[in-house]
Amino acid sequence: MNTLIYKQESYNIIGACMEVHKELGKGFSEIVYGDALEIELKNQNIKFKREVKFNITLLPHFYVADFIINDKIILEIKAIVSLTKSLIKQTLNYLAASKIKLGLLVNFGEDSLTYKSILL
Asked: Which domain of life is it from (predicted)?
């Protein structure tokens, strides 16, 4: 059984995402949702960093996380038909590279907001 971590923070983040989805609906590009989410996170006084780079050990490559919330949750946003296993694996890779334990993968591209909590 998975242990819930950062329950209140996760609730607040998903709530901010729902506010953005309620306002915009589906159909915009990821960058539009990211910009709107940045405004909503500020309005809700949620501490975040946007487009944070994480190095991959021993390689000249890096991952760019959409948002880091409170220095302890990765928030990856998408605007696609549906979330896939490959996006979950990508988020797991971000968690491994960053040493962060929780990732939230959020999709604005469906009729209703969808999300997955991913633990490392």
From this structure: Bacteria
- Helix boundaries (H) for 1-120: 7-24, 30-43, 85-98
Residue-wise pLDDT for 16-33, tens only, equals 999 999 999 999 999 999
Which of residues 50 and 4 earns the better pLDDT score?
Answer: 50
The answer to whether 67 and 49 are in contact (CB under 8 A) is yes
Closest by Cα among 2, 12, 20 to 118: 2
What pLDDT score was predicted for residue 3?
A: 61
Spatial distance between the Cα atoms of 108 and 99, rounded to a whole number of angstroms: 26
Q: Which domains does the chain have, with CATH numbers?
A: 7-119 (3.40.1350)
Backbone angles phi, psi at 86, to 5 degrees: -65, -35
